[in-house]
Amino acid sequence: MKKKYFALLVVISLLSASVWAWLNLNLFEKKDDAIHIAFVGPLSGKDANQGESMVQAIEIYIDYINQNRNAQQKKIVLDKFDDKNDLNTATKVALEVANSKAVAVIGHRRSDCSIPAGKIYKQYKIPAITPTSSVTKITQDNEWYFRTFFGNDLQGKLLAKYAKEFLLKPKGTASIIYIDTPYGKELADIFGETLRDMEVEVKYKWKLTNNGLEQKQQMKEIVSDLQAKSNDAGLIFLATQSNEGVKLVKSIKDIGIKNQLIAPDSYAKFQEGFKNYPKEINTPGYYTEGIYVFSFLLDMGNRFTYNFHSKYKEKYKKHMPGASFYTVDAAIVIIEAIKQIQNQQQELQAFRKNLRDTIASFNTPEKAIKGTTGLNYFDENGNISKPISMGIFTKGHLVSAPLQLINHNGSNNSEQRHKTVVYTGIQFNGINNIDLNNFTYTPDFYLWFRFKKEHDGQTIRPQEIKFINLVTSPTSLNDNLIRLKKPIKKEVTDGYTYLLYRINNLTFKEMYRSTYNLQTIFIEQEMMGVSFHHRQLDKNKLVYVHDVLGMGHKQKLLLDENTDKQKLISLADWQVADSNFFQNVTRNKPLGNPRYLGEKDIEYSTFNANIFINSNQYAYQRIIPRNFITDFFIFTCVATLLLMILNYTHNNYSKSLWFVQTIFAFLLLISTEVFIESIEINVENIRPFVLTTFQTLWWLIPAVLLDVAINRFVWMPLEEKTRRSVPKLMRFLVSSIIYILALFGIVAFVFNEPIASLLATGGLFAGIIGFAVQFNLSNIFSGIALSIEYSFRVGDWVKIGKFAEGIVVDMNWRAIKIKTRRQYILSIPNSVVSKSDIHNFSYPDNQYWLMCTIHLDPKHDPIQIDEILMNAIFSVEEGVLKDVKPFIRLESIEEVGVSGLVASYVIFFKTENYQYKSKVLKNVWQHIWMHLNQAGVIKSKAEIKTSKTAEALTSPELNKILNKGNLLNMIN
User: Fold this and answer.
1) Do 402 and 453 meet the contact criterion of CB atoms below 8 Å apart?
2) Distance between CA 820 and CA 810 in Å, rounded?
3) What residues contact 505, with CB distance under 8 A and at least 6 apart?
4) Which of 102, 143, 170, 774 is 20 to 30 A from 704, comparing alpha carbons?
């Protein structure tokens, strides 16, 4: 049986796997059929951590693309190449990449590596995007090279303008320290030329060699010279890579030079180079405090930026470097271009050419590809135009500088040259009145602003905000313009103004539902939060950014770290999953505002604080990869169908198959949910119906499976054991109870209706039905108990209580029918049988003891009487078992009449087949009389007296009788 069952399961598995494979051959696609993208960067050596972070970011995105691709889209494979940030190695690696299967390249990390590699990519006609190299000539005259990073031309000019606008005093000077590489020389030249154009004197310029042997001594000389000239050197621009920057800044700070330092993008993560120095450990930010750096800043990022950063931080337990964001954007551009190529089966060289042309076609804001750092679109030289922010190192963290340059073309006010950054923070105390049907909630939270109040005589009031997602009252259309009351705390320190508010009486709604989960039927996640912008000041005047220093990099949800964040909400089956805080841009119409005449929209900087809560109800859906959905659905359908067929054709396996069927029933339900979820349809029209249907099925299917299980594991074994059918009433009642409980669950948890009245009505109805059928139910349950106990079977001779003995001719769920020796049918209710003594003379071996008593004159020798009786019993030819010795017992000697005495002998002998009890007794009695008569004990039948009845005994009853008597009275 086990072998047969195992073979059956193997057949099911093979059939299911075959159908699955036939319907989806792409599961077995060859790796060579995938599309390869090459990454080239430092994966070993001193800069290995830079390349590792870039690869990790790309892999997160590629994994997402591969999991969500359809059957027609090819898998994306990332091939990694290590150039060690070395010029010679980069050239060799570029040749390897050009001759590989890669259709595009992401790299290199440094400009001095990208320049020679770019010539090879141009020669072999393979498109490349550098995410970090900024030297102008990398993309100049090379139509095959692009960059998602700003070039040195833009960066050098903006650094000089920022220094002139915010850092240099009137008639102040500046000096430059640069490294002798294309990157350092170009930045130094552009920075210096721009300052001279603005009539700022570049006082000194020091060159640092790129030769490691000479660099250390040369650096000492430069720092020593700077110390001597620090009074008139003015602001110091460090045009080097981060490795040299760490050494330079450490020497400058250790020697006590106080000049203001400003640096390019390469310094964005250079603070990590100081983490093991004692001064930095004791005072975080000792070496980096106050240094200005142009870079991509997370607190300036949008919602997409923060979501991607959260994924990275969750997977790798560290923060994502700024360079990795530009690297992800390069991957996004390449993959979006691949998607737009219709013929993906063409030759490699033709594919590369089409891919290059498609990337070049992203050349306007309308055709731009949205990335983590903004919109990606290229000019005729492959360069990208993106907003770039100035950061300042504070307490060891690089955050947005309090004042930022603006693009003059973006404002009608030609005199305005800057915008104010407002460090904004929110921490929640709780979220109340959550209504998931209307997506509204009432949060209790602290809100604060920290900002430079004045610059060039300008004053801002960042607390004049407009809540975007505030629920508007029907009586007032201006509720979302509610003014904040007086702050609960206000301080002015070091030129910064700090305002703290507490808000706990406003109701908000989920604002991102239109893009967040309107396309989702089975909503696994809800987002609650607060979003606002300034009433009047647009993004060219004021920007709200996440207060990294005030809230901490961990983005604490609660003010008290020791409080369980799950107490933030009070929703059953929901838990707090994540949070994010980010700035974004919202657009409003000018509506004739004279300050914005000629412009389509007014863009405001918004601050957004969101809390994500996950539903445990649909958590199982998150474990199924999206590219596996269709296959999983088909597999469960086929397997379930095969199991159903197998169940009806092989009843011997019904019990075992039930467990397999149960598993696949739930898998089919889950796969159907996920499959419907993946279909692109207007879910708003069908969501209520689909949700109600599946929520109902999650109650009905377990009820059906439980009903089937009771049939297979209770009723069927009971019928096999008793050889009679279970009463339909019993089946109906048990099934009814199961489905009624399921109905109550559906009413209460699917339709959210109170069931108290339903339970009361159901209880009353159940009471009436129970009272009406209580006698039948009593008999049925007693019948079940008797069947389980197996006290007797049809064909057994029994004696029940005081009823006449007979043979059982029928057993049903109401009564037991016995045919007595007088040939009439005695019907005894099961409830009476279960309360009575039951004597079964046919179980376990159809043998039993008979007891009869004879009365003789006590003058005869008891030993002689014993011998005569024993011989008489053994002389019976039929009915008496000869292999079991009878028992003969002298029960008593009693006085009869006036002077007569009588001795009572009790005879026990074993016989079989209770049906012939009377016949056996007759034969035994005849043989006893004959032997007594032949021995002269009696001369006629009148001289022997017997009891009127003979009693049948089971073996235990015989032992009980014998143990009660005095053994001295036993004849034998």
Assistant:
1) no
2) 13
3) 442
4) 774
